[in-house]
Amino acid sequence: MMDLVAVRRQLHQIPEIGLEEFETQAYLLGLIEDLISDKAFASVRTWRTGILVNLTGREGSRTIGWRSDMDGLPVTEETGLPFSSQHEGRMHACGHDIHMTVGLGVLEAMLDQQPLDNVLILFQPAEENEAGGKLMYEEGAFGDWLPDIFYGLHVRPDFPVGTFATNTHTLFAGTCEVLVTITGKGGHAAFPHEANDAIVAAAHFVTQAQTIVSRNVDPIEGGVVTFGSLHAGTTNNVIAEEATVYGTIRTLTQDMNQLIQRRVQEIAAGIATAFGLSVEVSLKQGGYLPVENNPELAKEFMTFFDKEEGVDLVDCLPAMTGEDFGYLLHQVPGVMFWLGVGAQTALHTPTMSPDERVLPLAVTHISHFLKAKANHELS
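RESULT FIELD:
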């Protein structure tokens, strides 16, 4: 059997940004080719830096999909682990090394016996930056291997090992990137009347944008408008000609996302009029739609794991995290769930370090489920 810990540690050392996962792809392909070398029912395709492994079923009337994402983040690791990232300024701070390792372990388990249904194991690039799932779908990467049902997970540090958490509705938010560019007129700090200060306008924009959630969003529905980056100016005594504000919108429905997008644009237009300068708003939603579980499939999933010994099944509330698996679940019915990894620090932080005891546990229980699903022991 595969040494899951060793595989995870090797993957952890080679994090790469989305659509640049060349070393990761090569490493995975080597392992996959060894696993399927004597399995006539297994085939491999690649798409850019992604990998698709198809197991042709004995009946093959439908395809059950399992998705693992591959990319790392532009984060400098500070875990102090002996197997820390070897790629400067890159880290698997979102746990995709765990996702890939679980995917490999599930593949190995599914190869024990040819299933009745087809099974697709997807290693998907660019979840963090370019909505790789959307790109794969739109560019026809799945072809005749497109699943009829799709499953996937995401690690969650604050849930202990053994926790599988999901619900029968929306699990993750849809997201939209917002880039606002404000252009005024630069000048000397001593003569503000001869300039048009982009920083002052940007400050008013950021402040006004905070009223969207408090005054335009139904408090029962909720929403997030966060601007995490504001860049302007060069020194203390020069009035800035340009300011850029970069942020995110997060909502649990697409309608709410579009409402907030509209209000951001309206407030930006008002700022332009009020301050007599130009404001350009760029909105990028891409493939980051809300992650909406199929209710019937989610009930089946939760019933199965509620009875599975060694799993603590939790019916959880939605979270405002974003995931491009939401795009695929808008094309194919399926389920996403949180996998507890008992880490001490949060996702996307430089010290995020999952408990590796989750690896054999996740592989064992997920393979039980997928085998039951693919062999018609479930609906």
